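Homework help board

Subject: predicted structure for assignment chain

Our instructor gave us this sequence and asked us to write out the predicted structure in token form, then describe one feature. I got the tokens but I'm not sure how to describe them. Can anyone check?
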Amino acid sequence: MVPRGIMFMLGATVMFAGSTALSKWQVDTYSFAEVLLFRSAVSLIVCALLIMPRTGITVFYTKHIGQHFGRSVTQTVAQSCILIALSLMPIAGAMAINFSAPLFATLFAAFWLRESIGLARGLALVVGFCGVLLVVSPGADSFTVGALFAVANAVLYGSVTAAVRGMSNTESAETLTIYQMGFMTLFFALATPFFGFTLPNNPTDLIAMIVIGIFNGFGQYWWTRALSMAPPSAVGPFYYFSLVWAIALGYIFWGDVPTLSLLAGSGIVVASGLMLLWRESGKKPKIA
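My token output:
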């Protein structure tokens, strides 16, 4: 099952990278709320079609609707921040900062779930934050502002991750996914009138908006399937391939050449994330 889990995870990274790149393209013309509304709504349809044939309406059964609501509020703000960041900075930089979310998740877990940090996890946190500082190194004003939104996304996403870890004791991955997409679709539908809604100017934009949601929906489902098929220590490291695709897409479509500080900072963030992953799974890294 591990090879299949790895394939699902790699497929998820391709879907997420494609959805992110298309979102960055569309947010230049449409409001971030509108882009995220299309993405959430289409993703909800895709996830429902993939999940409900196996679960039926039991996927909606929960005794913790308030927790789903609160988690989705945070996730809505987090996704708004990352899309604003993408409109202001290179895609690779935003993705690199986003990978610091596990560091913040560890901190939130220590406060909310009373998990001890320990020396190894504490070292990983310090090293990881140094990597974030390298990625957010002072530059153009737009890059600095974009980086702040990216960091805000990482902090919020880290809190969501910690919340999910607590909710996973009673909620299935399918239930968590369906409620997340459902509530986010509702929230962005309510937010769009305030941030602007414009009918897609041409068929190309409409198709792009739909594809964003399709990619994100499959990415969410495949990511969940990967984690259900194999231990996180086996499939988790492959999630970082998202950064490779982001760097490639940024160079191909926007001519973004990765700087030395971006590459170095990204490497440090990824290494610290892997250290936390291995620590969480109780395994040590193996030399290939």
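Reply (TA_rk): Your tokens look well-formed. For the description, you could write something like this. DSSP finds twelve helices and no strands in the chain. That's the kind of observation they're looking for.
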